[in-house]
Every structure is written in C-alpha cells, then in structure tokens.
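DUF1538 domain-containing protein
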Amino acid sequence: MTNKLVRSGSLWKLLPFCFVIGFAAVIAEPALISVGDQAELVSKGRLDSLVLRLVIGISVGSVMVLGRCPSSLVGPCTAS
C-alpha cells in the first residue's frame, strides 16, 4: 500500500501520510511515555503527560511534512 501511495506521485496524499507516520511513531514511543510520566510527577501535575506527548507528536508530524518540501519557502513543493 505504501509503495503504491508513493508511486502515485500525489503530494496531497503523501503529506498526510508523512504526518501520521511521524505522529504515530512518537505517540507510541515507550521512552516518551516514561519521560512524560516523569515530567508530570516532577511538575506535580501541572504538566500533563498526554498533552506533552501530543505536542511532541504534532511537532514531529509537522517536521515530517516540512521535510518532504524543503524548498516550500523558495518555490512550489513537488512530489518528485
């Protein structure tokens, strides 16, 4: 399925896929779950573990999308 998606060359199908892969990899990371739990413990509940994981997941997913289009500030983003 992934190979078919990449070969289709459709950037608008590929970018959400990149975001989901980056987001899911971070959310499921056991080390980040542990760090989030420790941060919540140290901050005495002011920092929620799930919120920390979601913010980092969204950040990594966004970087995955931006990494696919490094020249987006200079010119149009292409799927090639």
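thats it. The two ends are 19 Å apart (CA to CA). Helices lie at 2-8, 11-27, 30-42, 49-68. bye
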